[in-house]
Amino acid sequence: MKSLWNEKEAKKFGSNLLAQRVYSSRLLGADSDLVLHGGGNTSVKVNKKDFYGKQKEILYVKGSGCDLETIEKSNFSPCCLKTLLKLSEFDYLSDTDMVRECRASMEDPNSSTPSIEAIVHAVIPHRFVDHTHADAVLSLTNSPNSKELIEEVYGSRALVIPYVMPGFVLAKTILKRLKSADFSKVDALILMNHGIFTFHNEARKSYELMIEFVSKAERKIKKSFKGKSLSKAKSKHIDPVTLSSIRQIVSEWSQFPVIASLDDSALACGYSNLKNLKAIACRGPLTPDHVIRTKRIPAIIDGDPQRSIDKYAQNYSAYFNRYSDSSMTMLDPAPRWAIWPGHGIISFGRNLKETQIVSDIVKHTIKSIQHSEYGLGGWKALSAKKLFEIEYWELEQAKLNKSTATNKPHQGKVAIVTGSAAGIGFACAQALAKDGAVVIGLDLNPEIVNQMTKIGAHGQVINLTNETKVKSIIDDIIKDFGGLDLLVSNAGIFTAGAYLDKMNQNNWNKSLAVNLTSHQVLLKHSIPHIKQAIGGSIVLVGSRNVKAPGAGAGSYSCAKAGLTQLCRVAALELAPHGVRCNIIHPDAVFDTKLWTPEALARSAERYGITVDQYKTRNLMKTEIRSADVGSMVSTMCGPVFSKTTGSQISLDGGNDRVI
């Protein structure tokens, strides 16, 4: 590990102490081998005048839940140092009292709640204090002979702190050790099973001490491995339907839909193939902080996914009953990650961000476990009882609840929307994404990638008339997200109008291929997964022409009529699986690229009316916009339509011919 300190970059942040604190904190946060997703914390002690002009020493400490990688000045909570030091003098302080009094010590009540380690930072007498959960250091501390390893690597330059609960108890433990410390020799605190603190009166020195100490641990690991490498292997053939079923079972135990992301990299597959996998993987996490994200241990999928996950949930319930008291409520017993031997590792989360956090933590965990197990004399995590205390610690739970997104109608669901580069398809994708779904937009137009990025979705270029590519892309979606819950089949074209006796046969064939057959192919390869969906719903986008056709539009109208019949058949076939299939028939939608000002003017002139009158040619005299269709489609996919299937929904402002 190398120092990333750059004087030129540091000056851009400013010369004051808090600015230097922001810069060095971001350097720490940028390295995932040091901290992950909100982990670690930093502080700086500053002399400044308060509101009344009185000089006061302030501890700026990272706000709880803030991320070091992107931290700003405003994310540091300004606390009165004197108050925090007085709190450290108490023999006992409850978590509730500690949080309240730390908040009361803040100079700005609008700031974030201070880190639970605020008092720890206060009792360390240096201006800058850095704390990380460095992988390499944890590999040392999570070994049976950890004390000997730490002594060998750091000598007298590091004080070893036995594992205790974070917060006030840790502050008291550190304070006791510091009273007899010789700071001319000591540059770091090594917290068993927890991490490392470095400190100095200069920002750069404190940061570079962290880099130095972590580098020493890395060199020790490399030397102990003696040329060996982490286990790697190729993934076995993955059956996407089995992966969908795993995700379905976990979602049922979670009592909400989850995203399930498969990591089938060589490293993940190598770990999943370890001969002593169960013994190693089920000892505990890299650091207790991770337990609120990953739970204590993963599930291991042995042959029968249902049996494996049911067994995990039963064991979790037993674990809760063993260590809980009557005041506690059990979290859902579903795993947060699973090892699928020969295939890789699956991470679960309520949304993509949560899933990615779990995945990142797991990647670092499996590396460190192997470093300890095969290079440092063994892997030894904290006991189940101590990990339970952290998992159900009210302060850690508060951190997790703060980061959990509010539930939306489609939270945790996976949706495919075809023909979504523009117009109705884009509006449908946007509405579903807004309502919490992970959306994958498919379109022949290369703009689909950029368009989906705008709404936080994922775009894929594909010709939906190519069945091989349709199957392949659905398989990829299942691998990335674990399943498929919502399908909006919207792709279509409007072929040149012609009377039947003048019909160009190619136009007829093209309309049927795109407006009907491509939808059938999409259903064919989606249905095996959507049968295992959570609240599965299919919406086909038809046309007003189905119920009110016009002369000269036979190729389009007949294809859309066939699509309507396809919807009815699908509804009959999928109802036993709890999957709905409905079709929406919008009238002409004018806020799309198809309707240029020139085209609108020509059409209005043909009817002898103004453009505005043409746009509102319906009984309610209202224009149908793409956003209206998107909103209705998202609603049709949600709980409002949970008991509706095989229906045709008109969105046309009222059409006398249809009525």
Per CATH, the architecture of the largest domain is 3-Layer(aba) Sandwich
Radius of gyration: 30 Å
Number of helices: 25
End-to-end gap: 72 Å
Number of beta-strand segments = 18
Could you say which structural class the secondary elements and strand pairing correspond to? alpha/beta
Highest-level CATH class of the largest domain: Alpha Beta
Largest sheet geometry: 7 strands, mixed
Number of domains: 4
Q: Point out poorly predicted stretches.
A: none
Q: Determine the mean pLDDT.
A: 94
Backbone shape? elongated
The strands making up the biggest β-sheet line up spatially as 3-2-1-4-7-6-5
Kindly identify the CATH topology of the largest domain.
L-fuculose-1-phosphate Aldolase
- What proportion of the residues form beta strands (DSSP E)? 5-15%
Q: What is the percent of helical residues?
A: 40-55%
